[in-house]
């Protein structure tokens, strides 16, 4: 009880919102949502993604906030504090494994972004054409040494920030930088919309062709919503544990989900007009962002300086997402295994680097390990992504919803979400509860059974 009182909390609702958003906003918005939307059929995929955020993402985020604030503990300790049976700790364990799997490939992509900052500073993209842009990306990705070195630099930066304990300072800085990134994306949007043939890109992004929807599209969109909002891995439990007693957790979830989705959609509006205008394919895959964005900037005044700023801010957003998310395994090692902070950070990033090498060396079919397949036809890079986003995060989310729906007293849940009755939101809580107890888990189970081939959508 005394520990409960001592645990510090965020200073204001504003701080809560920005910190949570800092974990969510990252390469997911700028790199992954656009490239998957391109690869999985455009508007139809985007629609399913937005539905997954609303029907699954928001309810799960509220559950995680509840667990965190009610227990005031980290993701593993929280379940003990809530007097849950031992098995529930597995949610925290799944989260630790997911955080590792994601970091194996995320640190590689962050490395590409870091390298693009320097390439842009050197002026590599001045006078860029679609052919040279694609060639630049290919040389960035295949390596083998440069992408490995960049990945190493990324993990060193993350380690230094965590070990030096300047995470809070970093968060303060990002609070001011995030709006700048937002404005840069808006500038890209305006430029992209004036490109010849821009409307084709918009049509691709927003026109819903229902025939594109199938089981794999739904599973990918669902996995993406977890990845995007950093759900299913205990991160939001940890954030919830620092919330103030008067924070409206439902409103926070909705705001975070909306803002995050807005950033992703605006990134799509910057990218797809360029795809069509410059004669590229929306299904370019993981390189979509890197091939198109230099082209968009080449069409604006001060384009090269703004391009440097764009990749720099994207690198910062990726780094803050990594820092907040890598804390899950670090907290596990320090709090559950009694390790010192420095050892825990170095162990975590050390594992991330050693296995992350496999992701970096398999990012493209012409990479050194590009032809090695695990999990069916997937290489290491794709397998790490698939295992985390499409399997472990949804399983973690499902368990979280079941825990709240069936193992927590409804009254406790209502009291906490209404801030002991001070918020006038009983009907919203009731609707949300129906989602958490029935709709969200059923949706998750259906999509999941479909993905492993037990039922066919
Ligand atoms: N939310 C982050 C983004 O969209 C991705 C993310 C989720 C992540 N979990 C993570 C990144 C764990 C690193 C580690 O960019």
How does the SSE layout of this entry go?
Elements: H1 2-6, H2 13-24, H3 27-39, H4 43-71, H5 77-81, H6 90-122, H7 130-142, H8 145-164, H9 167-193, H10 198-206, H11 215-228, H12 235-240, H13 249-277, H14 288-298, H15 303-337, H16 341-360, H17 380-407, H18 410-417, H19 426-451
The structure holds tryptophan (TRP).
Tryptophan is lined by residues 24, 26-29, 99, 102-103, 106, 227-228, 230, 233, 321-322, 325.
Task: Walk me through the structure.
- The structure is a single chain.
- With 457 residues, the chain is mainly α.
- It has one domain: Hydantoin permease.
- It is globular.
- The N terminus is likely disordered.
- The site of tryptophan has 16 residues, from helix 3, helix 6, helix 11 and helix 15.
- Tryptophan binds next to helix 3, helix 6, helix 11 and helix 15.
Low-confidence runs: 1-5
Total beta strand runs = 0
Shape: globular
Number of domains: 1
> What share of the residues does DSSP label as strand, in percent?
under 5%
**What is the helical fraction, as a range of percent?**
over 70%
CATH class: Mainly Alpha
Reading the helices and strands in chain order gives HHHHHHHHHHHHHHHHHHH
Computed Rg: 21 Å
State the distance separating the first and last CA atoms. Answer: 49 Å
Count of discrete alpha- or pi-helical segments spanning 4 or more residues: 19
CATH topology: Hydantoin permease
**In the CATH hierarchy, what is the architecture at level 2?**
Orthogonal Bundle
How does the helix and strand content classify structurally? mainly alpha
Mean pLDDT: 89
Bound molecules: tryptophan
Sheet with the most strands, sense and barrel status? none
Main location: membrane
Membrane topology: Multi-pass membrane protein
Subcellular location: Membrane
InterPro entries: Na/ntran_symport (IPR000175), SNS_sf (IPR037272), YocR/YhdH-like (IPR047218)
